[in-house]
Amino acid sequence: MAEAKKEKKVAAEKAKKEKPKAVPLGETEAIDALAGPQVPENLPDASWPVEKLAEVVSKEGNMLVRANAVNALAKKGGAEVVEPLVSALKDPEDVVKANAMVGLAGLGRELVQDRMAELLADREANEEIRGGAAWVLGEMMDEKSLKHLKKASEEDESPFVRVHAKASILAYETAKAPEKKEIK
């Protein structure tokens, strides 16, 4: 009996020391999913027409392709890219939404401020779009945007939108505040 216990103990210690065998890629769908999206050979860039980039943003299954299309739209600039970038705020992937917000903010006040204010106030728009609009308005750092952000921070029914609006207000106020001088 002591011999059997000793053998079990030796076997258990040996099992601890052995590395688990890797499952070759492709054997299970779960492992394949962990490998992430495949990088296609032909990623969108600013040489593509706006219409094609907008189509990719709305219909492409690969997140990397959509994210690149959003960046390409932002690089192209102009009024015709505003709505495709706004539609990208609805994307299920955070990286695509973030690219769209940065792209919209980079287009400038003249092209997007009024549209972002409309989106922020639109109770029919989902909260991610309204939150994205709050972030973009916060990047503009001006009194007109601040007015819209204050209203949303106090009145929007979504905590998500209120937090984004308040964070943008805080960033604005911090940027406007004179630096505190250190007392020696």
Automatic annotation (TrEMBL):
Say if the entry is tagged with keyword Lyase.
yes
Keywords, sorted A to Z: Lyase
> Key word Zinc present in the record?
no
Annotated region (Disordered) at 1-24
A single MF term (Gene Ontology)? lyase activity
What domain of life does the native source organism fall in? Answer: Archaea
Please state what the protein is called: PBS lyase HEAT domain protein repeat-containing protein
Organism of derivation: Methanothrix harundinacea (strain 6Ac) (Methanosaeta harundinacea)
Lineage per the UniProt record? Archaea, Methanobacteriati, Methanobacteriota, Stenosarchaea group, Methanomicrobia
